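Can't paste images in this forum, so I'm doing it all in text. The chain is below; anyone willing to post the predicted structure tokens underneath?
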Amino acid sequence: MSSLQRAVLTVAILASLVAFLDGSVVNVALPAIERELGGGLVLQQWVVDAYLITLGALILLAGSLSDAFGRKRILMIGLFGFGVASIACALAPDGVSLVVFRALQGIAGALLVPSSLAIIIQVFSEDDQPKAIGRWTAWTSAAMLAGPLLGGLFVDTLSWRLVFWINPVPIAVTVIILWRVQLDHEHAHGHVDYLGAVLGALGLGGVVFALIEQGQVGWSSPLVWGIGAIGCLSLAAFTIVELHSRQPMLPFVLFRIRNFGVGNLATLVVYAALSLGTLIIGIYLQEVAGYKATLAGLALIPSTVVMLLLSGRFGALSGKVGPRLFMAIGPVIAAGGYALMLTMGTHVNYWLELLPGILVFGLGLSITVAPLTAAILGAVPPEHAGIGSAINNAVARIAGLIAVACAGFIVAGPLAEGGLQRVLLVCVALLLIGGVVSAIGIQNKHRSADIAVDPAKAPPSVGPSASGTTSTPQSGSVST
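Text version of the structure:
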């Protein structure tokens, strides 16, 4: 691995890590935030929702900006914005200020993940991409899973404000490394589809808002169904505009690339199971089994360790033999992990009833996630890596929101042993579907015949290169 590749991979991991970590670490701090700032349950909801809504609404736009103006530039803006917003959150004097600053964090966070993945695609060769993405996956997944533990430690020993104070440290390191990275060119074209950007943001923002808030006030609320309807209509208008635009923000022609379309379908069901299962297990351990918040966070750490150890290895293997096998068997093994957890009762024996399932689940995720991400991003032309990454991240987040929104219907009452078993069975079914979809639809070597582009409708950069084979990586350097 060259010095440029090492620097880029470090930047990609650190930039994404702060965004993923912040999304999970805050949840444990919510009771402490409410005790100090007041505001009750409403404040707790909006501390989480303000971040998710702006992040979900703008992630497609962020991917488009990354392709339009260059990944390094957009990544740098996102890092500075996220750092400033994090400091503002840590210093927030009241609940309203905290919610506003969290919304700003979400805006900056939307700029980080698509650009960080796109810069990997830009610098690494096709053969090296799966291994690099495997390492990225291991660390970012670890951040999501370890976030509740870290938040619990801060809240129990020091202050909830440290949840936000920790962000500027990795951000500063990332900015310094990124500043020294010099890329020769980034396919930046400077064009932004403004109408598509507005409609996309309104559509995703409205849908995300409705999915989040219906869990609290129900679909009968005029605010929920009204904004949800606006979101759906905006998405419909967005689709029409993008299909007829000569330079669309979202080239729908990408979905005609087999691995991209099938991979995002697999992402939808796999991440729905991941989000729903981990949420309900964490709540069950605390509310039914009597675990403390820190212990509940510790309970899931073994899966994090497994992913740190194995994701890079499976990413590298998928680069040699293709992603299909891993994307087919990985979700099935993860489903086996959830199935093993069906033995949990009211009194959970961690070593016998939970740990085996967590280890098997972590193994399944390690086999699945890096090949899945590499297959999707490796299928799109490198000049569209930003929007390709943004689409995949949007699919993963919407899948999680939909799954969590359906949690109450699946549990059917107060969370108890029966509700947990129903949730786990649904997660098993979703993961099995993900494995079957991948086994049938994913191809190890994408053929140019899989996509026929109408030159009159395709964006200028989509043509023969849309076969899914990435071009020669961009040259660049790391200044000394």
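Residues 64 and 195 are 13 Å apart (CA to CA). The first helix runs from residue 3 to 37.
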